[in-house]
Amino acid sequence: MKKLFSKIFVLVLLLSGSAYSMTENQMMIIHQVLNVDQGKVTKQMHTDFWKDIPDKNDIVKFMETTGIMAKLTRDGMNYQMELWKSALISYQNKQVFKSEDYIKAKETMTDFINRVSKNIPNANERAQVINQMKTGMINSDNLLKSAASRTNMQSVQGPIVELSEERMTFVISNIEKSFSRIDKLLQSEWKD
Question: What residue spans define the domains of the chain?
Fold first, then answer.
């Protein structure tokens, strides 16, 4: 579970080397929000995150430029959440299932990473981002197939992921909590 979040965060850090990057304070807050064991988002964290945004009236521009890592993190969490939900249904039904939400989240991530990677000036970093995306997509397909056949998943990187209904439910619960926190942080107005 921690590896999943660290992969999303590593991708975010890779992209932070691009022309647009959030402040160190914003990155620290995102890291705190995503912490699996002790993640939280408070009104003060929200205030501190948003104080570094120059034009709060143009959130779309922020998410496409300086806040690109925040958008990638949120979209990545949504993708993982929908992937694991589809894996759970695949496991229960003993056949591969891809929900509409999963398909949409996958398209959003693929499109976003393809667009953003073109703006990474360093060819090695650009290739690394694209290769991580491809590896992630292969692992996603492997997860769905393994869940449907009720076998452990062999990831491209080597580790074997044990799959059970209880484990998938646990992973989904943790992702939902983290997603809820990052989503709350990225709303321009604080809501209790």
Answer: 2-185
